[in-house]
Structure formats: C-alpha cells, structure tokens
C-alpha cells in the first residue's frame, strides 16, 4: 500500500511537471532550392538574377533560426550574427540578406488568440504588426515521409495565404508537419496544423529543422517593441502611396 | 479534385490523461486510407473535447498526440453514423533527449509560381496586354498603364524572364500584342523567387509574360502626324521590335513646332537608365550638363525646325555577353531673339546698354554609343563602351547695341566643327570573400574647330585690335582645339573584418592639349591684316599629368558608418607657347570625410566633406589674346596652378509610408581658399579680360528643403531654398566684394481622383538680392501655375495648363508679367488604334519671357522671344 502511495505521489509529481508548460527549442536553417541551377540558365533567369541567387545561397548558409514553444505560445526569430557594414566593392550578400531579416520576429499566443510580428519597414522604423488569430485552409495530404525519426505529413496552402502575409499570387506554401510533436507551430508564422512543422517551402525558399531540444530553461517573451499597427492598416497605407 | 458533396458524419469524444484530467490542446488527426478523401483534424478544448467530420464508408487511421504524453493510435472502419470515442493518454516516461536532425530538403522540381493561362480568359478581341489583363480576376489596369493585382501594385514587367526595355509597366502594358501572350505569371515577394540586389524588406509584385512559341518576335509602336496653323507640321514615329535575343527602339521626329518628343528622360534611358548611371557616380551630372542635354532642355525659340532620329539596340550576343548601342542624329534650324538691358557696374557711374541679338542657328550632330557587357562568372564583370560625337553647326547673329558709349550693328557668322571620341573599360574582379578590385580606364579625344567672322561698319575694340581703316570691317578668327585625355584608376576594396574596411586607390590622369588661334582683318581689297603683332595668335601646348594615391578607411560606430580618406596628388605640367616652354610641378594632400547615420525611426543623415583642387583647361592658359565676342578680348595665363576649396554638405531625409509623408533637407557650405578670377578692364561696353589665381577667401552656403504629405486623394508639397554667396570682383584695378542672396519658397497641391478631374496648383516666390560696389539690386519673381486634366466618357482626355509670372526689378521700376496657356483635347476609344488630338499652344500669343542674371560686372535683364501661338491637329495610329 505504501509502495502504491509512493508510486502514485511520484506519478503526481511527474504529471505536474509535465502538465506544466515546458519549453522546447527547435533550430531551423534555410536554403534556396532551385532545380539544377547552373550559372548559365539564361533562358529562365537573367544573368544578374542568377548571380544574385548563386551569391545568396552562400549567404543563407550562415543563418540559424530559433523557435521556442510551449503548449500555447511560440516565438520565432533569426539568430543574431555579426555582419558589419556593406563593402563598396560588392560581395555583400550576407550583409544584405541578414539586414533584411534580422528584425523579423513572430509571436503567437493561442490562449489570447493573438499573433504579433516585428518587422523593420523602410522609412517607418520597427513595426509591431498585430493580427487576430485566423482560420487557415490547409489541404492536408496523405503523403508522408520521415524527417529524422519523425513521421511527417504533407500539407499545402493554395488559398488564403494572406493570413501568413503572402498574397494569393505568391507560390504555393507546402509544409511537412509531424503529429508526434503536438503543437500547431512552425517556422515564421506558419502553423495551425495538428503537429510541429519541420519543413516549410514557399517556392524555392525552404526552412527546415536541424535540432530539437526539450525542456530548455528559457522563457518565451511576448513582442513589445516597435510601433503597433494592424496588418490591414499597414497594407492599406502601402496601397495608397 | 472535385468530389460530390457527401453527408459527413461526426466522430467525437474526450481526451484525458491517466488521472482522468481533461487534456487541452491535444491533436487528433484522421488520415483516410483513400487519397480522394480529405485528411481531417481537431484540437481539444479546455474540457478535452474534440469533434472530427468524417466521410462515411472510408477507413481512417486516427492519431492522438499531446506534448508530454504518449501518442495514441486507433483505426476507424467505415462508420456510417455519428460515433463517440474517448482516449486516455499516459505520460511520456521515456527521457526526451536533444534530437539532432541530419536532413537536407530535396530540390523542388517545378518553379512554383501562379500562372494564368490567358486562353481561358480571353475572347479574341483583345489587342494589347492591357486588354488581356482586364479580363483576369483580381487585376485592375488604369488609364496610365498602372496595374494592381488584388490591390497590390505591379512594379516590374518581365517578358520571358527578362526585363522588358526599361522594366516600367506602361510600355509593356500598352504595347505587348495580346495574341503573342501564352501565360501570365505573377511573382509576389519577388525577393523570395529571384532576388534583386539592394532591396530592403519590400513587397514587390512582378509580372512575367510568357509568349507563345511561334510569336516570340513582334513589332509595335505608334505613328503620330499632324498639321496646324500656320504652316505647322509634325511627324513622330516610335517603333519597337522585340525578340528574346534582341530589342530595337526607334524614335523619329520631324517638326517645326519647337516641341521635342525625344526628352531628356529618353536620353537617360538610351544611356542605360538611371540604375546604370548610379554605378558610375558623377556621370548623371555629366549627362545632364553636356551640350546635347542643354539642347534638349531648351524650349525658347522664335522658330524651330528639326529632323531627328534615334535608334537604340540591345542584343544578347552570347549567354554571357550583352551588346547595347544607340545613335542619335539631329538636324535643326532655329531662330532666336533676345533683347537685353545690361547695367554695367562701373566704378564711376553705372550705365545701361540696350542690346538686341537675333540669331539663326543651323546645327547638325550625331551621337552614338556602343557598350559591351561581359559577365563570365559571378566573380568577374567587364564592360567596354565607346562614345562618339560629330557635330557641325553654323550660327548667324545680328547684334545691335545702343548705349551712351556706342551705337553699332555687328553681324557674326560662326561655324563650329566638332569631333569627340571616348573609349571606356571597366573591370571588376572578386578575388576572395575579403578582396574585390576594380580597374577603370578611359581615353578621350576631342577636336573642336570654331571659325568666326565679325562684320561691322564701325571701328570696334579700339586700341585692343590693330584695325586698319576700311569702309566695312571684317574680322576673322580661327581656332583649333585638340585634346587627348586618358585616365586609369585601380581601386582595391579590402574587408578587414565586419566593422573595418580599407579602400586603396591608385590612379593617373593625363591630358595633352593643343590650342591654335589666329586673328586677322580681311580688308576690302582682299589683303589680310594679321593681329599677331598686337599680342594675338596662339600655338599653345599644355600637357598635364596627375598621379595620385589614396586611402579610405570605413568603419562602423554604433548607428553611424564613417569613412575618412586622404588622397595625395603629384602634379606635373608643361606649357609651351611657340618656342617658350616651362615645366612645373606641385604636390597636394586632399582629405575627405563621409558619414552615414541611419536612425531607428527611418531618418537617414549623410555628411560629406572634401577639400578640392582643380586645374584649368588649355583655353584659360593660352597666353596670347583671342576675341571672345564683338566687345571683349581675352588672354589666358600660363602660370595658373590649381584652385582650392572646402566643401561640406549635409542631407537628412525621411520617407514614411504610414504617414504618407516624406521630407528631405540638404545644406552645403563652400569655402574657397584660392579661386580663379577674371580680371577685367572695362571701357564703355568693351572689356579686356584675363584670369588669375586669387587668394582672398570667399564663401557660400545653400540650403534646400522639401516636404510632401499625402492626405487621401490630395498631396501637398512645400519647397524652400536659400542661398548666400560672396565673391570678389576685380574690375578696372579695383577689388570689390559683392554678395548675392536668394530665397525661394514654393507650395503646391495636387489631386489624385479616379473619376473626377485632377488639378495641380503651384505658387512660388523668388527674391534675389545682389549687392555690388554699393549698388543694391532686388529682383522679385512670383510664379503661379495651374494644370487640370479631365478624363471623361472613357475616351476623352482634356488638358489645360496656365502659367503666370510676375517679374519685378525694384530699383529700375521694371514690372513685367508673362503668362502662357496651353490646352489640348485627345480622343481615343478604348481598344481602338486611332487617336485624335487638337491642341493650342501659347493661347495668349505671348511674345517673350523675362529673365535676369548677374555676372562679374554686369546685371542683365533679358526678354527671350518664344514660339507664337499654334493650333495643331494630330492623328495617332497604334501598330
């Protein structure tokens, strides 16, 4: 009887520990994937575009993103790198790519039903875009594959890409999520699926997970910096100008 | 994937842990066995409840997962009615270690862009791309050719993945033939698909047109022809030819209306557009100041006839080499008249000269440029270009001068032949991640031969030119100017680390020039009286070499990027007049500094400082006399060295999309330590001038500010400008300090309605104060301009513009108003290739435009005659 009570108490402890909101950290990398891109593909892209793509790929190699999440909150950002200034002699791929993304952060809170995004605008400084959580029309397929040890399902987003900040004119978003890690999160603001997204592609730009750390001793801080503005208001002001 | 709607049935229940506590945020995934059925999922609420909508008769695999718990599986076999299923999830007992995923995402097989197959949307009546675009869902095209897709503006048009001519949307949308289009792709977040350099986080929408296999080559363009009152004509064809390997663009213009259809903007586009010019800093300013640009900008003639043709070609010679070339040919005849009142600021008594100048100019010139761009790899870039210019112009002037000193009529005839050739090579090489080097070399050759003949029946320039008495005086001047110049600059860009860069420059600049001048009097008996004995006639050679080395150090300090630099110049030069030769040399240290600060709120501040030195050209050094005009002679100074001045400038700018506001402020201050000064001996209206290096300091500053704000459909702008400068005047052995102050304020308002008429209103006030030898002169100019444009009935465009200028010269009690108005009505039915326009230019038949200028010892008020009233009727046909 005593053993059972001890066992039960231990189980209670465990369940309390796990019932608590532990934080998981996932690291992602990014890549620009083109089918057989060669420097001489001038029938598809212009010379300067190919040069830009080729140079950018090496820049993206240095990027690492972090996603922190618990049961109901997530935060995604690009890990800081020391890049310095642009050189007047060219060769600024890493600097240009990094400066474009370094201030972008994505926060979600399922309890408060709010999405926040930090974004550096040209001319208005750091903005804090606010969105109400919306329903996303994912098309989940029965296609599966393994990423690491996790079984992943494929899901496509053909319409309603506005919710993630892409217009319907942009390439389809297709992701691979694993129900084995049961959180509706992923890189950037992608999510709303019954599992963590381990790979996400928008056209040839792909984000993919490289490591998962459980129970990390980190807190997920809500985004507070920047000038608050709703995404609709921001879109509206751009359209007029 | 259209499946008929089938009745859905529900599977619901609760998810709890082993202690019977409900689990919130548990995921339930239902994967069907058949691929034609959708995958479904549900997430439990705070009471652990879930609900799934399933298709009856289908087998599903249910996966239930929750963070920290063991995943549960279940199979559901062909249920036919609503069902319940509960799940219990035990705690995950296994240790959760860090997982490292060794994974590389596979390469995507297709290009993943949204494309519209136009065949499914068109009816066959469409003529141009704009007509096709209007049929596509979510796409809007306005009258101007601006396209928006789902509210987002399309800013770039590509054809077959390449920029279409200059990339602007208007040309493509109004001209691409509808029957050549196969597919239209819209590329959003263009930066994700095929990025462009230097783009900040912008949302650019680009449109890519894919052409049908057999329709990849086509012509398009339009032809405009018209005539009017009195005896006016205009013929203006514009032709384009497009194929994926080459493009042609021809613009022709034959008219006598004084209006040039080839604008300065067209010239910039021929040169390669603004973006190419930015690469070669300083060249835009060179372009805008060269004599062809000046010609393009001038619109004040009494009469003007011209025949003009411009051809631009671009061709991809090999996958790595691009060729672009243009040639411009222009032949023009024009008549100008200018009536000037010159106030001479003589020490004793200022006096006034009234002068009438009537000129007839006949000019022919051709300019051409060929550029080869070779990009062998991502690390190398080679550009070769050659520019040539040939010109021949003849100018006949009739000058009548009237003053207390002189009453005379002079006829001038001059002929100028010019030849110019430039070869340029630019090579960029990336050696490693930290080193890039550029080499730039160019060579210029120019040959100018101006011949001038002055004819008058009165003795001019008495005592200065040794005229022999005659009934009619004919003075001839021959000038031949010949310059060879070469430049070579090597620059190495070294990235020491992220916060420190060092740029080293090594260069040389050579200029070898020769000036030959000869002045004679052609006597009525046919004999020649040469002026050499009076100090005229040059055979002057000037050879100049500048070798320099420089170093710039760029570093980051917080939000600022700073770049101090220092250049050291070794100058050698040799001058020779007939047999007398002298060699001189000097060294100079020129520092410079640049700072760029980017504030977090979007403001950007630029600061620039440099110490400058310039040497003069051969014409300023040639040490014997030449005739500059009918009333002045000039002698150069072979001892001239360089001038020296400091310049510091600031620029603050902000551009806010959210507030619809942008502003910029620029300020510059110049301090001259040594400057070139003309020394004048003035006698009546005749002067003898020479040039020296003067070392009393002079300074000037100017400030320019501009702010524009948009509120709904209105845009307001305010511009301000202020300038102060002081300078010494060396006149008749006296040294005087003069000052000039100018203030200008301009306000404007413009409307941007879609259906209502649009108005543009502008008012400016300009006050200029000149202070010279105790004489103060104030000019006040007020300008009011208004323009209205009204598009109505979907076929008519009515435009009218009006300008009123009130000019006041307070001290002379001169008060003059000038107004000008133009109006036009254009008719073109949508989808029609015909357009008609009727227009009136200079409706009030205003005769002249007033202006003023201030020089060394002269204040001029001039009336420049302009084209009289014209009524034109034009027909336009679109190919």
Task: Please give a structural write-up.
The complex is a heterodimer of chains A (241) and B (879). Chain A contains 4 helices and 12 strands. With 241 residues, chain A is α+β, with helices and mostly antiparallel strands. Chain A has a single domain (22-240), classed as outer membrane lipoprotein receptor (LolB), chain A, CATH 2.50.20. In chain A, strands 7-8-9-10-11-1-2-3-4-5-6-12 form a 12-stranded mixed beta sheet. In chain A, helix 2 (47-60) packs across helix 3. Chain A is globular and about 75 Å long. Residues 14-19 and 36-42 of chain A have low confidence and may be disordered. Mean pLDDT of chain B is 85; it is low at 190-202 and 274-285. The radius of gyration of chain B is 36 Å and the shape is elongated. With 879 residues, chain B is mostly beta strands. Among the domains of chain B are: 9-89, Carboxypeptidase-like, regulatory domain (Immunoglobulin-like); 114-216, Ferric Hydroxamate Uptake Protein, Chain A, domain 1 (Beta Complex), CATH 2.170.130.10; 696-879. Chain B has a 32-stranded mixed beta sheet that branches. The chains are: A alpha+beta (241), B mainly beta (879). At the A-B interface, helix 1, helix 2, helix 3, strand 5 and strand 7 of A face strand 2, strand 3, strand 9, strand 14 and helix 3 of B. Chain A: It holds the Pfam family Porph_ging. Chain A: This is GLPGLI family protein. Chain A: Residues 1-19 form the signal peptide.
Structural class of chain A: alpha+beta
CA radius of gyration of chain B: 36 Å
Largest interface, with counts of residues having CB < 8 Å to the other chain, equals: A-B, 104 and 116 residues
Overall mean pLDDT of chain B stands at 85
What oligomeric state is this? heterodimer
Largest β sheet strand count, sense and barrel closure of chain B: 32 strands, mixed
- Low-confidence spans of chain A: pLDDT under 50, at least 5 residues? 14-19, 36-42
Class of secondary structure makeup of chain B = mainly beta
Total number of strands of chain B: 48
Shape of chain B: elongated
Q: How many domains of chain A?
A: 1
Spatial order of strands in the largest sheet of chain A: 7-8-9-10-11-1-2-3-4-5-6-12
């Amino acid at each position: 009887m005593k053993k059972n009570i001890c066992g039960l108490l231990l189980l209670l402890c465990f369940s309390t520990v796990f019932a608590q909101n532990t934080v998981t950290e996932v690291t992602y990398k990014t890549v620009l994937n083109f089918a057989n891109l060669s420097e001489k593909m001038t029938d598809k892209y212009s010379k300067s575009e190919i040069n830009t793509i080729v140079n950018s790929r090496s820049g993206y190699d240095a990027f690492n993103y972090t996603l922190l999440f618990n049961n109901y909150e997530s935060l995604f950002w690009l890990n800081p790198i020391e890049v310095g200034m642009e050189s007047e002699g060219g060769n600024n791929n890493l600097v240009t790519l990094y400066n474009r993304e370094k201030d972008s952060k994505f926060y979600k809170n399922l309890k408060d039903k709010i999405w926040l995004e930090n974004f550096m605008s040209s001319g208005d400084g750091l903005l804090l875009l606010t969105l109400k959580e919306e329903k996303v029309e994912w098309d989940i397929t029965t296609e599966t594959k393994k990423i690491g040890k996790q079984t992943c399902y494929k899901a496509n987003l053909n319409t309603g890409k506005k919710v993630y900040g892409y217009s319907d004119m942009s390439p389809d978003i297709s992701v691979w999520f694993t129900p084995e890690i049961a959180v509706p999160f992923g890189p950037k603001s992608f999510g709303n699926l019954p599992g963590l997204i381990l790979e996400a592609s928008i056209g040839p730009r792909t984000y993919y997970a490289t490591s998962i750390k459980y129970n990390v001793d980190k807190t997920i801080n809500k985004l507070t910096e920047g000038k608050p503005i709703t995404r609709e208001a921001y879109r509206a002001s751009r359209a007029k100008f | 994937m259209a499946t008929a709607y089938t009745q859905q049935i529900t599977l619901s229940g609760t998810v709890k842990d082993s202690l019977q506590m409900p689990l919130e945020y548990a995921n339930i995934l239902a994967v069907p066995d058949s691929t034609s059925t959708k995958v479904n999922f549900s997430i439990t609420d705070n009471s652990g409840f879930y609900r799934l909508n399933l298709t009856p008769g289908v087998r599903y695999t249910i996966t239930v997962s929750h963070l920290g718990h063991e995943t549960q599986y279940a199979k559901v076999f062909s249920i036919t009615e609503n069902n319940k299923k509960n799940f219990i999830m035990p705690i995950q007992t296994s240790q959760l270690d860090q997982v490292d995923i060794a994974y590389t995402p596979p390469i995507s097989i297709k290009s993943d862009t949204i494309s519209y197959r136009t065949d499914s949307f068109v009816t066959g009546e469409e003529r141009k791309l704009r007509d096709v675009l209007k049929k596509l869902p979510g796409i809007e095209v306005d009258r101007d050719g601006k396209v928006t897709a789902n509210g987002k503006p399309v800013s770039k048009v590509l054809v077959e993945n390449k920029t279409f001519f200059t990339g602007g949307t208007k040309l493509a949308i109004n001209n691409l033939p509808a029957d050549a289009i196969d597919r239209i792709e819209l590329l959003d977040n263009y930066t994700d698909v095929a990025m462009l350099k230097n783009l900040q986080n912008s949302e650019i929408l680009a449109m890519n047109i894919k052409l049908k296999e057999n329709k990849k080559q086509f012509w398009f363009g339009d032809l405009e022809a018209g005539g009017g009152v009195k005896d006016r004509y205009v013929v203006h064809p514009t032709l384009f030819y497009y194929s994926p390997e080459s493009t042609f663009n021809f613009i022709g213009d034959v008219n006598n209306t004084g209006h040039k259809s080839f604008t300065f903007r067209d010239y910039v586009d021929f040169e390669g557009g603004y973006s190419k010019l930015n690469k070669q800093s300083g060249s835009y300013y060179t372009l805008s100041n060269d004599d062809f640009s000046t010609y393009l900008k001038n619109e004040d003639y009494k009469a003007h006839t011209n025949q003009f043709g411009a051809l631009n070609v671009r061709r991809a010679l090999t996958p790595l080499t691009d060729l672009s070339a243009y040639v411009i040919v222009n032949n023009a005849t024009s008549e100008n008249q200018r009536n000037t009142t010159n106030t001479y600021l003589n020490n004793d008594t200022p006096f006034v000269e009234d002068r009438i100048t009537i000129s007839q100019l006949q000019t022919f010139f051709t300019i051409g440029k060929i550029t080869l761009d070779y990009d062998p790899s991502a690390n190398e870039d080679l550009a070769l270009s050659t520019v040539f210019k040939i010109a021949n112009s003849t100018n006949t002037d009739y000058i009548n001068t009237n003053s207390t000193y002189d009453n005379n009529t002079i006829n001038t005839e001059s002929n100028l032949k010019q030849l110019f050739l430039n070869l340029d090579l630019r090579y960029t090489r990336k050696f490693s991640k930290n080193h890039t080097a550029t080499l730039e070399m160019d060579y210029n050759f120019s040959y100018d031969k101006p011949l001038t003949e002055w004819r008058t029946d009165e003795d001019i320039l008495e005592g200065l030119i040794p005229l022999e008495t005659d009934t009619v005086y004919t003075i001839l001047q021959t000038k031949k100017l010949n310059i060879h110049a070469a430049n070579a600059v090597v620059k190495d860009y070294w990235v020491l680390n992220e916060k420190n860069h060092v740029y080293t420059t090594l260069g040389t600049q050579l200029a070898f020039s020769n000036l030959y001048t000869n002045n004679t009097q052609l006597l009525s008996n046919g004999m020649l009286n040469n002026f050499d004995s009076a100090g005229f006639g040059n055979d002057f050679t000037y050879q100049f070499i500048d070798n320099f080395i420089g170093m710039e150090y760029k570093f980051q300090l917080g939000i600022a990027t700073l770049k101090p630099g220092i250049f050291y110049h070794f100058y050698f030069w040799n001058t020779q007049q007939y047999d007398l030769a002298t060699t001189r040399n000097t060294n100079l240290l020129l520092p410079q500094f640049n700072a760029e600060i980017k504030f977090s709120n979007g403001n950007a501040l630029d600061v620039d400082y440099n110490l400058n030195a310039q040497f003069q050209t051969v014409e300023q050094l040639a040490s014997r006399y030449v005739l500059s005009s009918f009333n002045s002679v000039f002698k150069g100074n072979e001892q001239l060295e360089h001038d020296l001045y400091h310049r510091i400038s600031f620029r603050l700018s902000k551009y806010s999309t959210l507030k619809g506001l942008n502003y910029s402020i620029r300020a510059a201050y110049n301090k001259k330590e040594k400057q070139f000064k003309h020394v004048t001996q003035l006698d009546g209206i005749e002067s003898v001038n020479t040039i020296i290096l003067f070392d009393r300091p002079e300074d000037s500053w100017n400030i320019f500010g501009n702010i524009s704000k948009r509120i709904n459909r209105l845009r307001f702008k305010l511009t301000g400008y202020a300038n102060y400068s002081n300078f010494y005047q060396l006149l008749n052995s006296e040294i005087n300090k003069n000052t000039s102050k100018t203030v200008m304020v301009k306000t404007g308002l413009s409307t941007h309605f879609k259906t209502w008429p649009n108005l543009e209103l502008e008012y400016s006030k300009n006050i200029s104060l000149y202070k010279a030898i105790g004489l103060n002169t104030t000019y006040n100019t007020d300008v009011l301009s208004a323009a209205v444009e009204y598009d109505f009935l979907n076929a008519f465009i009515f435009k009218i513009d009006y300008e009123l200028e009130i000019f006041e010269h307070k001290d002379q009690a001169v008060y003059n108003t000038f107004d000008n108005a133009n109006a036009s009505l254009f008719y073109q039915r949508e989808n029609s290739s015909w357009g008609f326009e009727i227009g009136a230019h200079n409706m009030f038949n205003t005769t002249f435009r007033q202006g003023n200028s201030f020089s060394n010892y002269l204040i001029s008020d001039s009336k420049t005659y302009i084209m009289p009233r014209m009524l034109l009727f034009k027909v336009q046909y679109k190919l």
